[in-house]
Amino acid sequence: MHFYPTERLALFIDGANLYATAKALGFDIDYKRLLALFRTKGLLVRALYYTALAEDQEYSSIRPLVDWLDYNGYTMVTKPTKEFTDALGRRKIKGNMDIELTVDAMRLVENLDHVLLFTGDGDFRALVGALQMRGRRVSVISTLQTQPPMVADELRRQADQFIDLADLEDQICRDPATRPVREPGSRPMRRAAAPAPVATTLDYPDDEDDGRG
Fold it and tell me: pTM for this structure?
């Protein structure tokens, strides 16, 4: 990773996409450690976390995480999910946050030097290009270490810097002691994530983020 100590940084986290990426890599993210890591890389202006919530449910498994993030240095941007039935009669839940993230990034751009975008969704390529046209550096954080990769190729190529989430595991893993032992150079082992207040498939629907957009 290449950073300048005087850069003004902001993290824009596509919550559903980051959750799916970490799950595919087989580890849970410690969001306190993640924030601490990037505070050492420059002047962290804001860390924004975007997620949709199923508000009609009495309890959502992601809500404890959302509440914790809200009180521990993150700016939460949420909206209710929408339920609908597709042409085949299948129940679907939609909760896309792309517009909210894009609007916020363009609003904050004048106060930033470097934008860190936690997503692999190719739909964000236009945003990356727009930020670059304003003279800002953009890093994309996702992974190539899954099959298929979780990051869209066009998004990775557009970014000034691509950071593989797998390379950050030692620094942001929620419980390093439980990490599986891997042979050097091998692909990450897939394993069930340890219990944590993270999303279920209902909270993070497949139709919203397949990892690559």
Answer: 0.79
The pLDDT tens digits of the residues spanning 152-175 come to 999 999 999 999 999 999 999 987
Could you tell me which CATH class the domain 8-178 is placed in? alpha beta
DSSP 151-198: S-HHHHHHSSEEEEGGGGHHHHBS-GGGPPP--TTPPPPP-PPPS-S-
Q: How many CA atoms lie within 13 A of 205 on its CB side?
A: 18
Q: Are 25 and 147 in contact (CB under 8 A)?
A: no
* 30-73 per-position pLDDT tens digit: 999 999 999 999 999 999 999 988 766 555 667 888 899 999 99
Element (H, E) at 71: helix 63-71
| 75 CB burial (10 A radius; 0-12, 13-18, 19+) | middle
- Rounded Cα distance between 24 and 64, Å, is 22
**DSSP count for the chain of H helices, then E strands:** 7, 8
Name every residue whose Cβ is closer than 8 Å to that of residue 12 and which is 6 or more positions away in sequence: 48, 50, 101, 104, 105, 115, 116, 117, 118, 119
Average pLDDT, the chain: 82
How far CA 13 is from CA of 20, 73, 89, in Å, comes to 12, 13, 32
pLDDT digit string (tens) for 71-88? 999 999 988 876 656 677
CA nearest to 7, candidates 160, 201, 121: 160
Residues ≥6 apart with Cβ < 8 Å to 133: none
Domain segments of the chain as ranges: 8-178
